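Notebook p. 47: complex prediction with zinc ion.
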Amino acid sequence: MKKLCIILLGPPGAGKGTQAKKIAKTYGIPHIESGRIFREIAKGDSELSKTVKKCIEQGGLVPDEIVNRIIKERLLSEECRKGCILDGYPRTMSQVAALDSIIGEIGGKILVISLKINKNKIIERNINRLICPVCGAIYNLKTNPPRDDLKCDDCGSQLERRVDDEKIEVLRRRIETYEQYTEPIIKHYEERGVVKMVDASQSPEKIFEEIKKVIDQATL
Ligand SMILES: [Zn+2]
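Predicted complex, structure tokens below:
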């Protein structure tokens, strides 16, 4: 079987993180989240760490050349021998080109899973969203409430709510940014017939059922 590299796309607030974790657990493949990797690297004191730290602090994106190098290293590692889920990568067409060439080199296969959901639905969902500031677990007061009132099931930390208008406005802008940068990426992979759309307005369980079907078909 070819190494399956899943590119998980979804606007902020569509439940991408939750789904990525479920996929990783079910299929025994690592969840490679570029944002988290950069934050980890930024903690060190190598030259690379300093560069990445500066990018994060200035609120900019880490240069493609560095991102590509970091992702390539991960993709070639033993951890990814069966495949992986990419989250937050690729973000630019130059990253797409780099990824395609790495996948070509290792004889892998790309599957793009695109979570589709209406913008207003995301906004509504986020008004009910809770996040653990310590371990990153995500809850929703309506669809996925924590067992203990406002405490993280995994680590017991106090969960944070994100309800103010300013943050909702930021979210709206982040969704628009997402739509802009993913458009050419989806088009590129659609031309190769490797994009599967999944309706993300359903419950997390239903979404995952659909994702599983898509992955199982791709690995046949
Ligand atoms: Zn937690």
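Notes: Helices lie at 16-27, 34-42, 47-57, 64-76, 93-106, 119-127, 165-190, 204-219. The radius of gyration is 17 Å.
Next step: compare against the earlier run before touching the bench.
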